[in-house]
Amino acid sequence: MTRTALGALLVTAAAVSVTCGRTINPADWTVSVQPAASPAAAASLAPQLTSSSRGVLASWTEQAGRTATLKFAEWTGDGWSPARTVASGDDWFVNWADVPSVIRLEDGTLAANWLQVTDARIEAYNLRLTYSRDDGRTWAPSFMPHHDGTKTQHGFASLFQMPGAGLGVIWLDGRDIELSKDLPTFEGGEMAVRFAAYDAAWKQTADAPVDARACECCPTTAVVTSDGVLAAFRDRDAKDIRDIHVSRFENGAWTPSAPVHKDDWEIFACPVNGPMLSASGREVAVAWFSVTNDQGHSYAAFSSDAGRTWGAPIRLDDQMSRGRVDVEMLEDGSAVALWIEFADKRSQIRMRRIDSSGGRSPAITVAGLGDDRASGYPRVARHQDELVFAWTESTGEGMQTVKTAIAQLP
Fold first, then answer.
1. Helix, strand, coil fractions of the chain, as percent rounded to 5
2. CB-count burial class (<10 Å; 0-12, 13-18, 19+) for 88
3. DSSP per-residue string spanning 241-274
4. Among 217, 286, 348, 371, which is most exposed with the fewest C-beta within 10 angstroms?
């Protein structure tokens, strides 16, 4: 990620019109976050959470020397299942931002992804996919959704259930950068968002662009609404405005992307801070990070028409934020939003309940957090009346470990 100058915040931004919202009565919504024994080993990082009708799947990466291993476990209300291995290798691209995942499809099949290095000098890697029909005991040989053959970035993937049957995946694809590599620093060309789909027999049925010019290394997100698939990502226009855009998969094609809100965040390097979506029917919530007047804040917004239009942004943090957001819809149409708050020279993972009227509960601290980027993206997922949390905690001397916690919904 050296070509993106991670963390550089050369900012020119217009003021963001934001709904701070009424405060939801604390008596109406409060939860107690309780630690849960993590299924991950001591040396672990890059957690991801996905929900299904059976429970919440947690996945993470464990490292031993040069070997990286993708593992997963499932929370069903009685604790974590024993960890199982998806795959391992000594040629993986492992970092805090571009993380693997495991999801359960509607037919019970598990699908997973990870990254395989093709040229370490230029941080080029391929996206590998696999699936298991026996609950993770065995896995199919891995394969790639892209077939361009270029040594470029293919990552920041989001896996999702295709409506009806099969797997969908979107990812950031750098093939145009490789094909335009007349500059010694490989800065020619554009990063794109691409899409692939597989049917129930795992035959690839689609390979198509979603957006031709996106931010180089911000995570993507995708959900299935009652109207179809909705994807979100950080766009990048010709003036380096990098606002959050959404695109819908309709009638076999992706609609032109449109902004959730015109933050007008102008930044000349990727902030490595992507959006997150959650959906229930046609109701959708999105959370994201932006910077105004050199101050970072996290926001959320609601849509009642499957992402075609959005309400006013609701600010999540109380002082300042490092972003790295997540959001999870609740049964009553409200949502729980998660972000990293930065206040009093320290970082904390915080959450609050929000609703489409702009209402916000008081913020609740989930856990303290180190200030280094290795802490990654905290995650939240819901199963029935429980919230499940996962994050990476620095343990000193460059070591990280995945932590988990649970909260009972009122």
1. 5, 50, 45
2. middle
3. B--EEEEEEETTEEPPPEESS---EEESS-----
4. 371
Cα–Cα distances in angstroms (integers) from residue 114 to residues 91, 104, 159, 307, in the given order: 11, 16, 11, 28
Q: Which class for 382: exposed (0-12), middle (13-18), buried (19 or more C-beta within 10 A)?
A: buried
Say how far apart CA 370 and CA 154 lie, in whole Å: 29
CA distance 393 to 367: 9
Helices (H) and strands (E) in the chain, counts: 1, 30
Residue found under tokens 């997100």:
221
Residues with Cβ < 8 Å from 252, sequence gap 6 or more? none
- Tokens 């690839």 correspond to 204
Distance of CA 258 to the CA centre of its chain: 19
Instruction: Return the structure tokens found at 79.
Output: 């604790």
Is 280 within 8 Å of 302 (Cβ atoms)?
A: no
Angle at 213 between CA 210 and CA 217, to 5 degrees: 95
pLDDT at 21: 60
Tens digit of pLDDT for each residue in 292-315? 889 999 999 999 999 999 999 999
